[in-house]
Amino acid sequence: MADSQAKHAQQDVESGANGGGPLAQVALRFTAFTEKWLPDAFGFVLVGTFVVLLFGLVTGEPLLKRPDDPAATKGFGLVDAWGLGFWSLITFTLQMVMIIIGGYAVATSGPVARLIARLARIPQSPRTAVAFVAAVAMLASYLNWAFSLVFAAILAREVARNVPKADYRALGAMAFLGLGTARHRVSRAEIACFRRERSG
């Protein structure tokens, strides 16, 4: 798969050399280099796991150890600490999965799918397509961040079909803007709550 991505990136570089400005050519060369030489996310996870394990062993932590008290939260060896730490994230993981599944169910429902199809016909040029997906993603995040994520991703796909010259990578990146908008809104709410607590 990495080879096909590298070939695709190389084709983009060659097609960018024929048309497009110098900035587009530089961007395509960086993309080709990154897709060829950077590993997948799973590779980073594996390397990170073994780096932390190595640092733990260097600092004197035992590899295998269990505390005498079954209710203890400290005193585990590195292997048990990693395993228990992984499973302690299940509650949060399940909450995120349910939010994404709920957002997907709403975004792919019949009425919303028809709305996406209508919206995807609005932009006519590649630049307006990218700006349009960004604006819709940010507006949708005011309803729900998970809904915005799925809604904007499906919208980006439909816009790419209707405006074939639009850069699908830019459309995909713009679909994520709703997450930043939602996070900014949460941060402002947290600051307002903190100020009320301090003054009260």
Summarize the structure.
It contains 10 helices and no strands. By secondary structure, the protein is an all-alpha fold.
Describe, in plain words, how this protein is organized in 3D.
- The chain is mainly alpha-helical and about 200 residues long.
- α5 crosses α8, α7 runs parallel beside α9 and α8 packs antiparallel against α10.
- It is extended.
- About 75% of the residues lie in helices and about 0% in strands.
- The mean pLDDT is about 80.
Note the beta-strand portion: under 5%
Terminal Cα span: 58 Å
Uncertain ranges: none
Overall mean confidence score, pLDDT? 79
Bin the helical content.
Answer: over 70%
Reported for the largest beta sheet, the result is:
none
How many separate helices?
10
Shape descriptor reads extended
**What structural class do the secondary elements suggest?**
mainly alpha
Radius of gyration: 23 Å
Topology, number of strands: 0
Give, in order, the helices and strands: HHHHHHHHHH
